[in-house]
Amino acid sequence: MLTLWDLIDPLLNKLVTQPRTRGGERSAAPRGKPGAATTGSKSPVGARVEAESANDASPGIGMAPPLTPRGSRSKKRGRGADKSPDAGMQAKYDAVVKHMLAEHGVRVRKWRKNMSGIAWYVTYRDGSVQRLVEAPRPKGPMSAAIFLHEIGHHAIGFNVYKPRCLEEFHAWRWSLEAMEAHGLNITDQVRLRMHRSLHYAVQKAVRRGIKQIPAELGPFLEKPPSRRRSSGGSGR
Predict the structure, then answer these.
(1) Cis peptide before 224, with omega less than 30 degrees from 0?
(2) Distance, CA of 65 to chain centre
(3) Residue 202: what pLDDT?
(4) For the packed helices 141-156 and 188-207, what is the interaxial angle rounded to 10 degrees?
(5) Phi/psi class of residue 105: alpha, beta or left (left: φ > 0; alpha: ψ in -120 to 50)?
(6) CA–CA distance from 49 to each of 59, 64, 66, 171 (Å)?
(7) What is d(CA 203, CA 163) in angstroms, rounded to the nearest whole number?
(8) Cα Rg of the chain (Å, integer)
(9) Is residue 101 a contact partner of residue 107, using CB atoms and an 8 Å limit?
(10) Scanning 24, 38, 98, 145, which has the fewest C-beta atoms within 10 Å of its C-beta?
C-alpha cells in the first residue's frame, strides 16, 4: 500500500541529487545567496565602478567586470596646452631653444608642465651672473611664446624699463618679434594671451597707485574679450 511519503520521496531525491560533470565527479554547489552569480576569481575592489565609468554600462551578471588597462584613459589637456607637433616642427622648436639659451647665456632651471614662466638672475660675490628661467618646453605656438617671453626679460634687461608693467610689454613684444624672425606661427590665442597678461599687469599697477599709464599700454587698459569655450590659455 502506497503512502504519501512513498510519492514525495522520489521527487525529493531528484531535487537533492547534484549533476555530474563529464569526468564523473560531482560539481560543488555554488555558495551564497540564492540567485547570486559567482565568478572563478574575485574582482579587484572598485573594478565594477571603473568598468561602468569607462564603458557606460554595467557588466553582465555572472561575468567578471572588465578592467580598464592602465594608460588607456585619455587625459584632459590643460588650458593653453599645445598640440603635439610633428618631428620636423619639434626639431625647429628645439633649435630655437638651443640658439636662444646660448645667445643670451640663460640656463633652464626647470621645464614647467603648465603654461607659466619666470625669469631671474643671481649675482655672485666675484661679479659673475647666472641667468635662469622656468618655462614650458616649446612644443607649439603658446609654449614657445611663453618661453621666449622669459628669454626676453634677459635680452632687454631687468629694471631697464619702468614701471614693471612696461617691462612686461617689452618682454612680450620681444617674444613675438623673435617668433616672427624664426618663422614660428603666432596664433590668435598667443595674441590673446599677451593681451590678458598685459591687462593684468596694468591693473596690478593701478592697484599699487601708479599715477600715469605708459602710452604703450593704452590698448591694454580694456579687458580682453572672453575666450571661446573650445580654446585655452592660462597663467602668466
Answers:
(1) no
(2) 29
(3) 97
(4) 50
(5) left
(6) 10, 12, 10, 50
(7) 13
(8) 34
(9) yes
(10) 24
CB 175 within 8 A of CB 145: yes
pTM, 2 dp:
0.63
Look at phi and psi of residue 24 and say left if phi exceeds 0, alpha if psi is from -120 to 50, else beta: left
Grid coordinates belonging to 10: 522520489
Which three cell numbers, joined as nine digits, stand for 192? 590673446
Q: Which residue has the cell 629694471?
A: 159
Q: What percent of the chain has pLDDT over 90?
A: 58
Q: For residue 74, what pLDDT band results from cuts at 50, 70 and 90? A: very low
DSSP state of 20: B
DSSP 3: -
Determine the residue type at 6: D
Using CA atoms, how far residue 213 sits from 165, 170, 175, in Å, is 9, 14, 22
Residue 217 C-alpha cell reads as: 599700454
Buried b / exposed e across 42-64, counting CB within 10 Å, b at 16+?
A: eeeeebbeebeeeeeeeeeeeeb
Half-sphere exposure of 95 (CA within 13 A, CB side): 10
